[in-house]
Amino acid sequence: MDGMIAMLPAPLQKLSSHIDFQGQKVAERTYQVILTIAGIVGFFVGFWTQQLSYAIHIVMGASAFTALIILPPWPFLFRKNPIVWQVPTEEQEETSSASPPAESSAKKDDKKKKEPKKTK
Q: What's the total number of domains in the chain?
């Protein structure tokens, strides 16, 4: 995602491009409702007028409208509940930077001995 943002012009790179989890839920529900209603309306308009093109135009117009609403991360819709991350402690930073300790072969052998063998 950072590579795509780097390709944007400098003024657009400064804009925030994230949404929170509640915002994702709102965005998904919004597009589902709009496109479902547009599909139903498009079907009935197309059926009434006997023009498939009318139904397709209605659904395509609703898709464009939905994209206009959903794609920008509007702060008043999708960023109301920011995530508060915990600050890592020094212990966690040290253990995360070091590689995880490998199990010794003796411990692996003990685990194999403890596991019951499956029989048919």
A: 1
